[in-house]
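User: two proteins, same treatment. go.

Assistant:
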Amino acid sequence: MANRFSVVLVRPEIPHNTGAIGRLCVGLGVPLHLVRPLGFHLDDRSIARAGLDYWPHLDVSIHDTWDEYLEAVNPKRMMMLSTHGEKSLYDCRFEEGDALVFGNESSGLPKDFYGRYRESLFRIPMPGEHARSINLANAVSIAAYECFRQMI
């Protein structure tokens, strides 16, 4: 199962979210890609606290730019998770080699992604009336485990 898909965080801002996502990636055996700028230092204690002793086992790559990520990884397909997606995550049929891409906590994906990757935008259904979005670490967990579920 290892490395059947990957998780990509574009410009993450909150270290404990990234730490929790790293721990999740270790548990699923999938790589984590971080695209700069990062809102924290990788030696931040919050990452270590959230990632516990899993962080040394994480397959993590840091990319200076989105284009650098694309060139280095050349993902088969990208599934962009956003509150702006019109299609439900649960309508997505995941395939080996997919990259699950998430924006940052305060502003989501870079603005140009909404036009550039329109067909790849998916949302997590939220039937509640008063929430704009859910925590990034929770969103990654939901999407990653749906991807995992489809591949087992």
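Protein 2:
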Amino acid sequence: MPELPEVETIRRQLEDIIVGKTIGKVTVLASKNIKLDPENLIGRRVVGLHRQAKVLLIKLDNNHSLVFHFKMTGQLIYEKDSQRVRGGHPTADWYKPLPVKATKLIIEFIDGGKLYYNDQRGFGWVEDLPNDKLAERLKNFSLIDPLSPQFTWEYLAKICRSSRRPIKLTIMNQKELGGVGNIYANDSLWLARIHPLQPSNTLSDKEIKHLHQALIQAIQEGLKYNGATISTYLDTKGKKGEYQQHFKVYSRAGQKCLRNDGGVIKVIRVGGRRTFFCPVCQKLRV
């Protein structure tokens, strides 16, 4: 699933391509989880692209937004003439003639460009919503994320002190902190030297401040390297994300800790997700 850096990278690159374009035709190929009336989109002009947590919003000139949640396997592919740009979950469909079996929605612009929404598993969703309904629909996706000015260490402390859950689950709770998924949660906790199972309400102010900075650092590094390439992930310019070359602990089970402290990275399950940590520099306090 694309996390904040991957979705933000997609947003920035699609913004350069489709803002100002006018929709000429919309084709819904699979109605499941696609909630829109094609006729209401024809003639509408794209005025901007926004992101809320891991959700992508294409803003239109009628005070509506097309809202995309990629879930596990959603992807967007823009194509015009010989140009093809892509983002989201990587599959071989990125390179095949479009549409493909996984294509759920096609948005055609009057200049000949086409935007394809594909989703192999079908868990993602797309909706056309009036902007005054966005807050209610996206109430489970916090406006505050590690890139937000509102993301202060005091805000993080408030979240932590209200929960006994393992800290990894707390920082992945999209309702309270947007955009942090499995990769960046693992690496942030390593940066802060905090065990992923440490109960959130047991963290000291010092630890919370370290974690606050670690979350920002991990997300900013993800953006710097255009996100992570798992399998064949490419950004919308066809460039591979490179953050996977800079993983701190994620997907490094059995390897030596990068701190050279004698630790070997272990993997456990937390909330059903694979979780990586160093038993030497990320000790669980009882």
